[in-house]
Amino acid sequence: NLSGAIEFSLKSFELAPGQVMAYWFLSLLHFDLKEYDKAISALKKVEQVLRVPTAQRSNHIASDLDVKMVDLHKRFALTYESAGDYDKAMEYQFHLMEQSKDSDEAVQGFLRCVERSTDSHAAVAALTSLLKRRPERRKLFFPLAWHYRRLNDYAAALKYIDRTIEMEPTNVSAFAFAARWRAEVGDPIEAENLVAIAEQKNLRSFDLHKLGLELSLKRGDVNSAFRHLDLMVQTTDADLSPIKNRLAALAAKMSASPVS
Prior knowledge:
mainly alpha
């Protein structure tokens, strides 16, 4: 069983404390048990041994496992990601991209972690560095826009969200964010234009039409608000009847008001 295998690995350290194999498999065993902190500690031991020249490793045995730094970085990235530490996982995924000359697999792993990273400064630095090396990687625009927005850099966020729409003209999430952010910077006209363009493309999302509803109400256009509400209903299983009732009450109140 896994516990017995861990005990066996620990005993092997007493015989050969400098070997890589036992630490490596110990990290895999802890990973399978979802003991990620212990798995990471074992990987750090592997890293310490790998940084020492083979000839200088004490008690090194001939049957030791041939583990390279790229293998170690893959395990670090996977383990940190599984543990929910996406910032550290992103760091190792970035190393993997450099080592693999930005292979598709490495870039996908990096982007997966970037999307969940809470360190927007580090995310932007890594993304812009990769974009300089690989300007054709259009999938970088969206996460760049998102992290710039988290840093309240609206100019950069809008630049990259617009580039996302240029490259992916049916990306409804990009339209929703582009419209929302323009509303946030005080440009409701352009925000509504983007919502309208998305509608013309038959793009639908809850967030997109929620914004459309909000903007319609700010203009006092209850009919448009109802239309966006109907489109919201098509995109969710949530009960939106309370909102519909409020809109109906507002419409009745507005129709009963004397026209000046």
